[in-house]
Automatic annotation (TrEMBL), chain A:
This is ABC-2 type transport system ATP-binding protein. One of its GO terms (cellular component) is plasma membrane. The lineage of its organism: Bacteria, Bacillati, Actinomycetota, Actinomycetes, Micromonosporales. CDD domains: ABC_DR_subfamily_A. InterPro entries: AAA+_ATPase, ABC_transporter-like_ATP-bd, ABC_transporter-like_CS, ABC_transporter_ATP-binding, P-loop_NTPase. Residues 7-232 form the ABC transporter domain. It is a peripheral membrane protein. Belongs to the ABC transporter superfamily. It is found in: Cell membrane.
UniProtKB/TrEMBL annotation, chain B:
GO terms for molecular function: ABC-type transporter activity. It holds the Pfam family ABC2_membrane. The keyword Membrane applies. It comes from the Bacteria. Coiled coil: none annotated. Its main location: membrane. PANTHER family: NODULATION PROTEIN J (PTHR43229:SF2). It is found in: Cell membrane; Membrane. One of its GO terms (biological process) is response to antibiotic. This is Transport permease protein. It is a multi-pass membrane protein. Keywords: Antibiotic resistance, Cell membrane, Membrane, Transmembrane, Transmembrane helix, Transport. It comes from Micromonospora humi. The chain crosses the membrane at residues 43-62, 74-96, 116-144, 156-177, 189-208, 254-273.
Length: 282, 281
């Protein structure tokens, strides 16, 4: 097993009855990397991640997470893996501080609970019962419980769902901090800007398969993609052309129109365009 | 500060600060008790219900059911048994589905906490709340209804083992039945009717021998009837034993049936317990 790999997956399959949730996923995540799994709802993101977290059993395939088969998790492995689930597990009757302190007791080398509460931005809420927290604050508590054990590898399943823009930015900073400290991070998201802002590499998953793995700016050969030049004809009709040499085309148009080109725009595919094409909605 | 580069190999630090098994279990128990005491419904339902029932029934029925045995005294033994069942069977059967539905159990499974610690926490909570609830019930009964506490060590011993066996059986069955509930809300719908029917047919509200024979036979399959009978041997005069269906308090059979339910409950727990909801696959 390659020690540089935090996660290695070959031919992973999982079916529920007739429904094939994961149809042969291959995946490598390097140590220290931030890896985003991007895909629409029902693509198999959560099933894949929960198999890697040791929650679900697979039907077929080879899986190693930190060198261990997650189908046979032991306490030592569990203490190195931090998990932020999609659904929040709530402890309505307890305070934020109590819950984080309690969970710190499960780990051999836990972080200071008060520090972690502060770090996720819940310092002012440490003495508040968890049921009084807003959706975004509950999510921060989830993150606190995910990182309290100082994990080598942190899973985050759609971590910023329900966050306001400011909270998302703060959360991204936290992820960058953790990554800078050497934590390997695997996050699932359906926010493209989140994947673009955080991930070293993005894996696009659709219909239970990994369609492509690449750094966000290279996804779908985005850099080499043709530019689209669009303009309006003198009759007012919309016209457009895909070209590898947009500057030449614009110059030609300028000459043809003898100056300003009406409605001129030059665009390249956004991450969203590339992504939508990959998952089959062009 | 140096920036940490990708570590080449997993750091296998000695688990020096990992808490011992006993400490983990005690922390878990303390957390469960805190959660229980802060949940007003639980406290009122578990601690208050038996006392309210005694106050009501003692006000309605005041006659003697046998020489020297008032209905109230008979009823108090039934309520002690019911209280033990409430704190274990109903409490767990209702709350575990809620915690499972909320994802609390799934979250515990994602930590290095050994599985048994979670069960130990529940057991500690049941034992502590059960003792507190029983003590409160006895205090109220002695103060208001002249209940005679057991006078001999042998009777206290019987009280002890009947309570321990009964609570053990009900705890295991409560954990087992929690897996029947599909959602958070259905726990109460599954457990409450079972508990209520058992109370009626096991001789809590009515003198057991006044129930139809078939009903007595059905009740004799389940633990509550035997818990009530065992406790009657502790709190009622020895002469009352002659009025029991078997002509005595049948303590041997009490131990046998409760012990059998412990075994059955344990098997059900081990084979059916779920950490996640069905929709989690």
């Amino acid at each position: 097993m390659d020690q540089q790999l935090a996660i290695s997956v070959r031919g992973l399959r999982k079916t529920y009855g007739d429904n094939v949730a994961v149809a042969g996923v291959d995946l490598d995540v390097h140590r220290g990397e931030v890896f985003a799994l991007l895909g629409p709802n029902g693509a198999g993101k959560t099933t894949t991640v929960e198999i890697l977290e040791g929650y679900r059993h697979r039907d077929a395939g080879e899986v190693r997470v930190l060198g261990v088969d997650p189908a046979k998790p032991d306490a030592d492995w569990r203490s190195k893996v931090g998990i932020v689930l999609q659904g929040t597990g709530e402890f309505d009757e307890l305070t934020v501080g109590e819950v984080v302190r309690h969970f710190s007791g499960f780990y051999p080398d836990a972080d200071d609970p008060a520090k972690v509460v502060e770090r996720v931005g819940l310092g002012a809420k440490a003495k508040a019962r968890t049921h009084t927290l807003s959706g975004g604050q509950k999510r921060r508590l989830d993150v606190a419980l995910g990182i309290i054990g100082r994990p080598e590898l942190l899973f985050l399943d759609e971590p910023t769902t329900g966050f306001d823009p400011e909270a998302r930015r703060e959360f991204w900073e936290l992820i960058r901090d953790l990554s800078a400290a050497g934590t390997t991070i695997v996050l699932t998201t359906h926010y493209l800007d989140e994947a673009e802002a955080l991930a070293d590499r993005v894996g696009v998953i659709a219909a239970g398969r990994v369609v492509e793995v690449a750094p966000p700016n290279r996804l779908g050969n985005r850099q080499e993609a043709l530019a689209t030049v669009s303009w309006r004809t003198p009759d007012g009709l919309a016209e457009s052309a895909e070209t590898a040499t947009p500057t030449a085309l614009v110059a030609e148009l300028a000459a043809r129109f003898g100056g300003e080109v009406p409605g001129l725009a030059v665009t390249r595919p956004t991450l969203e365009d590339v992504y939508l094409r990959m998952i089959g909605h062009s | 500060m140096t920036t940490t580069t990708k570590p080449a190999a997993p750091v296998t630090a000695a688990p020096a600060r990992r808490l011992g098994a006993g400490a983990l279990a005690l922390r878990q128990g303390r957390l469960e008790i805190t959660q229980f005491l802060r949940s007003r419904e639980s406290v009122v339902f578990t601690m208050g219900f038996p006392i309210i029932m005694i106050l009501i029934f003692a006000a309605i029925f005041s006659d003697e059911i046998a020489p020297g045995v008032s209905y109230t005294q008979y009823f108090i033994t039934g309520m002690i048994a019911t209280g033990l069942m409430t704190v274990s069977f109903q409490n767990l059967g209702i709350w575990i589905p809620i915690e499972r539905d909320r994802g609390v159990l799934k979250r515990y499974r994602g930590t290095p906490m050994p599985k048994w610690v979670w069960f130990a926490g529940k057991v500690i909570m049941v034992v502590v709340i059960g003792i507190a609830e029983t003590a409160l019930l006895l205090a109220v009964s002695v103060a208001l209804f002249d209940l005679d506490l057991p006078q001999t060590a042998a009777k206290w011993l019987t009280f002890g083992w009947v309570a321990v066996l009964g609570v053990t059986a009900c705890t295991l069955c409560g954990i087992a039945i929690s897996s029947l509930a599909r959602t958070a809300r259905s726990g109460s719908a599954v457990v409450t009717p079972v508990a209520l029917v058992l109370q009626f047919i096991s001789g809590v509200f009515f003198v057991f021998t006044s129930l139809p024979t078939w009903m007595q036979q059905v009740a004799a399959i389940f633990p509550l009837k035997w818990m009530c009978q065992g406790l009657r041997s502790v709190f009622l005069p020895d002469s009352f034993g002659a009025q029991e269906p078997g002509g005595s308090f049948e303590l041997g059979r009490v131990a046998l049936v409760l012990g059998a339910w412990c075994v059955l409950g344990l098997i059900l727990c081990l084979t059916t317990f779920r950490w996640t909801t069905r929709r989690d696959g």
